[in-house]
Design brief:
This protein is of the alpha/beta class and 230 residues long. It is built from 9 helices and 10 strands. α9 links the parallel β9 and β10.
């Protein structure tokens, strides 16, 4: 079904799709389509608002640290290089080592794998005391449609690593209200069981195996007050 949809979309764009396949080696699909060239953006920043009362946001320049291993680590490194954030990959085993690296490199942003975050038992209180004014971003390898707050830090998925999501966590601060709303949503989800949703007529069953599609469908159903079992 996916290939049929792709073929239809490409044909609508006056393009073509072709297949090359070898036994035991797999298949390769290629598309040919003519697209207009766009103007390159001068910088990886949010467009400035025309409202003079709003302060435009831009990426805080400086060094950046990538702590721990995760998929797409090299891709993140290249993105940060493009943004002139001078990334460094590190292996950290204890908090004092992290503190030493921060003192040495004075980073503006730290990207830390979830496993290292848990291993070091990091929390908002320690970060506020030891790493003030540093944007700490937790890297999640599970599929997520968009960044989500984890305490007072952004949690960014690299499965996939999307440039717009990276832009978001580099620029946008987490407000207390947003964190409180996230905790409220989690509490509501935990309080309601499938049985209670079914009894109140708010249960809907969805057959979908793609994790990102599951997340999109679940969030949209919650907006209209339905409990989703995927």
């Amino acid at each position: 079904m996916g290939l049929a949809i792709a073929r239809k979309l490409i044909e609508e764009m006056q393009g073509s799709i072709s297949l090359s396949s070898q036994l035991g080696k797999g298949s390769e699909f290629s598309i040919t389509v003519t697209l207009p060239l766009g103007e390159p953006e001068p910088d990886f920043t949010l467009r400035q608002s025309t409202d003079p009362t709003q302060t435009p946001h831009s990426i805080k320049k400086g060094n950046s640290l990538i702590v721990g291993y995760f998929i797409q680590r090299e891709a993140l490194y290249r993105y940060l290089q493009h943004l002139h954030l001078q990334p460094r990959m590190l292996t950290i085993k204890h908090l004092q080592q992290l503190q030493n690296e921060v003192d040495m490199h004075q980073p503006s942003h730290i990207f830390i794998a979830t496993a290292i975050w848990q291993q070091l038992q990091l929390n908002d209180q320690w970060l506020e005391e030891h790493l003030p004014n540093i944007n700490v971003i937790i890297i999640n390898q599970n599929p997520m449609l968009s960044p989500e707050p984890l305490g007072q830090q952004w949690c960014l998925s690299v499965n996939p690593l999307l440039p717009d999501n990276l832009r978001h966590v580099l620029i946008m601060p987490i407000s207390n209200i947003q964190a409180e709303l996230t905790e409220l949503v989690i509490s509501d989800d935990m309080a309601e069981s499938r049985e209670s949703a079914e009894a109140s007529g708010r249960l809907i069953l969805v057959a979908e195996d793609h994790p990102i599609n599951q997340q999109v469908i679940s969030k949209q159903l919650k907006k209209i007050g339905l409990h989703a079992t995927l």
